[in-house]
Write a structure and sequence with these properties.
The complex is a heterodimer. Chain A is of the alpha+beta class. In chain A, a hairpin with a 3-residue loop joins β1 and β2. Chain A is elongated and about 100 Å long. Chain B is of the alpha/beta class. A 5-stranded parallel β-sheet of chain B has the order 2-1-3-4-5, sandwiched between helices. Chain B has a 4-stranded antiparallel β-sheet with strand order 6-7-8-9, with no helix packed on it. A 3-stranded antiparallel β-sheet of chain B has the order 10-12-11. In chain B, β6 and β7 form a beta hairpin. The longest helix of chain B has 18 residues. Chain B is elongated, with a radius of gyration of 20 Å. Classes of the chains: A alpha+beta, B alpha/beta. The interface between A and B is large, with 42 and 41 residues.
């Protein structure tokens, strides 16, 4: 279509038409960007005169980086002293329009190289500006509208090549991501890495204490032994989590269901968490009392332990707000912190086995199993768990469970109140 | 003379572990908890050896190693939790002298430290200036910053790598081919024009008169050079 438009308005001769068709064919068959660009230039050159061509691509939001350049005409020997049309490219970037410029550097009657004509065209892929293509002519002739149209045709095709190349790149990135996901699924690889970390400390500090050439003083010895002890605990916790998660995965974890009062349990959990974490401030907000669920108390406690632990680890210093309310036959719990939050890219994945938000400080350690276990436990109680988060504002974990009401009345739910009686 | 060892790990317990073992051997221990900090300490304090953890947030161990190699030959031992071949190869390719895989014993750590220090003594480690001056041009390797007349110049990553080629061997003539291979990669060996454009851009940014360059000069038919400056 482009070709027809040009042939009508620009009265292309047969040689030009042939060149344009040949360029289209190159684009259609292209596998490699630089080679295809070379081909296009060779095909265009007989019908469209220029000395230099440079393709500038956007790097970051507003800086151009040359990614392809050819000097095919006069002055090739001048190498880096040639004109490369950077100012023209920058103007294209600013205006997103075709730019024609003339530049005179001294007396050009003696040296044609001193008179330069630049033609800059925006490289647009799917409506997005990717960079600029600049043609340079020494000593003229100036770029006429016909020339500009030919150049536009070439630019459109170069943009198509770029788009093609970007798609190929995106595809290979996606494949790499999928490989990474498979790796995370690779239970043995991940487990061995997770076990190695505490083991590294135990081995390191134990062999340090075993050094025969040094008599460690009591204080240092205790310091190292405390680390070994801590890391052994961590190893045990990790093994427990691994066992739980694979039992939950295979459905072989035994649950002891019994009626429990959720409001009482939440109060107990908050008390327990306060005793473990001295600096943790918990705000309890029980809107509905008398909520009863059929649950395994140990496993439910495990879920709350996990969420509160996460809050102290990933949102240190933040107040944690736990709320509970009953709406019809569903108990709704929230655990909210005002920490740094989780970005949307990661939020969907945090319940996946072994998923950890990348680039977290390493001293905050986790196995990537806690939330996976929480979700499986809640699911086996016919409930749901999910998270909402805003970066910089905090994270809220929501849990819903099927419930009934006993002795006291739900505060804000008249229907359930009657049911409860 | 005391031997200074820089220990870099974002996990304080590892830093403590290495410090505890190195101090009784008479080594002085410098401590850093991230990659960028490590590069800066190497530039400022010039340690005799660096123990560099690989997995760190921000600038990781591989990147820090690469940056340090831009200005220093200090021996580097990579400390890695992954013992796979490609990780070890990657570390060595980035300029590390040795690697040690977690978990390691205290004696293995010390043996590797001694071995690497011994080799460094034999080969006589050389240390370049952390700051390079050429006329009104100044490069701060540790921060990867370039100044012209004390004003910071913004260079793209490619332009900076190209400039380093010259700053690392002032006075030497570098062929287009070498520059292309070192900065862009072997597949660009023939791509002379891309080098010309980049040199032209560097001159626009660094030279007082780009048409009469003082920092990056063309040696016709041979390549480019950063000529020694007349006093």
């Amino acid at each position: 279509m482009m070709t027809r438009e040009i042939s009508e308005s620009a009265n292309l001769n047969s040689q030009e038409l042939e060149a344009m068709y040949a360029i289209s064919r190159v684009v259609a068959k292209s596998t490699e960007l630089d080679n295809s660009l070379n081909d296009i230039i060779n095909l265009a050159r007989p019908v469209f005169i220029f000395d230099n061509i440079v393709m500038y691509l956007l790097e970051g939001s507003n800086s151009l980086e040359p990614s392809y350049a050819r000097a095919i005409g006069r002055g090739r020997s001048s190498e880096a002293d040639l004109a490369w049309g950077e100012a023209t490219a920058n103007e294209v970037l600013r205006t997103e329009e075709i730019i024609v410029r003339k530049e005179v550097k001294g007396d050009y009657t003696k040296d044609r190289m001193r008179l330069r004509y630049f033609l800059g065209l925006p490289l647009t892929v799917v409506g997005r500006l990717m960079g600029a293509l600049v043609f340079v002519r020494y000593g003229g002739p100036t770029f006429t509208p016909d020339h500009t149209q030919l150049a536009e045709f070439i630019t459109t095709h170069v943009a198509q090549l770029l788009e093609h190349q970007q798609l190929v790149k995106r595809l290979s990135n996606l494949e790499a991501e999928r490989r990474l996901e498979r790796l995370q699924d690779d239970f043995v690889a991940t487990v061995s890495h997770e076990l190695r970390t505490p083991l590294g400390f135990i081995k390191g500090y134990a062999t340090t204490l075993l050094r025969e050439d040094i008599n460690w003083d009591k204080e240092t010895r205790n310091e190292f032994l405390a680390i070994i002890d801590e890391e052994a605990d961590r190893l045990r916790e990790l093994i427990d989590n691994l066992l739980d998660s694979s039992r939950l995965q295979s459905g072989t974890l035994r649950m002891e269901f019994q009626p429990i009062r959720l409001d009482t349990m939440v109060r107990d959990m908050a008390l327990r968490a306060r005793s473990f974490h001295e600096n943790l401030t918990i705000e309890l907000n029980i809107e509905t009392t008398g909520i009863q669920v059929n649950a395994d108390p140990t496993r439910m406690a495990q879920v709350f332990d996990n969420l509160l632990n996460n809050a102290t680890k990933y949102a240190p210093g933040s107040q944690v707000c736990i709320s509970l309310r009953g709406v019809d036959d569903t108990a709704h719990m929230e655990v909210r912190d005002n920490g740094p939050g989780i970005s949307p890219d990661h939020l969907n994945n945090i319940f996946n086995r072994f998923y950890r938000v990348p680039n977290e400080i390493k001293s905050v350690r986790g196995s990537g199993l806690g939330l996976f276990i929480c979700r499986r436990i809640i699911q086996s109680h016919n409930g749901e768990i999910w998270a909402e988060s805003e970066v910089g504002k905090g994270t809220t974990f929501h849990i819903t469970l099927p419930c009934e009401y006993v002795d006291s009345n739900p505060v804000d739910n008249p229907i359930s109140k009657e049911d409860g009686k | 003379m005391t031997t200074n060892i820089l220990v870099v790990d974002d996990e304080p317990k590892y830093v403590r572990l290495m410090e505890a073992n190195l101090l009784p051997e008479g080594y002085q221990v410098l401590k850093e908890y991230d990659g960028q900090g490590a590069v800066e300490v190497v530039a400022e304090k010039r340690p005799d050896l660096v123990l560099l953890d690989v997995m760190m947030p921000g600038l990781d161990g591989f990147q820090a190693c690469e940056r340090i190699r831009e200005f220093s030959n200090v021996p580097i031992i990579m400390v890695t939790a992954k013992g796979e071949e490609h990780d070890r190869v990657k570390g060595l390719d980035k300029g590390a002298d040795d690697y040690i895989v977690k978990p390691f014993s205290a004696t293995e750590l010390l043996a590797r430290v001694r071995a690497v220090l011994r080799r460094a003594q034999v080969s006589g480690g050389s240390f370049q200036q952390a700051v390079f001056n050429h006329g009104n041009l100044k490069i701060d390797f540790a921060r990867a910053e370039v100044f012209r007349e004390d004003k910071m110049v913004f260079l793209s990553a490619t332009e900076y790598r190209l400039l380093l080629q010259f700053a690392h061997s002032p006075g030497r003539i570098l062929s287009s081919e070498d520059l292309l291979v070192n900065v862009w990669g072997p597949e660009y060996r023939e791509d002379k024009e891309i080098l010309w454009v980049s040199i032209s851009r560097l001159r626009q940014k660094l030279e007082d008169d780009p048409r009469n360059p003082k920092h990056i000069v063309t040696r016709s038919g041979m390549g480019y050079t950063m000529p020694p400056l007349e006093e």
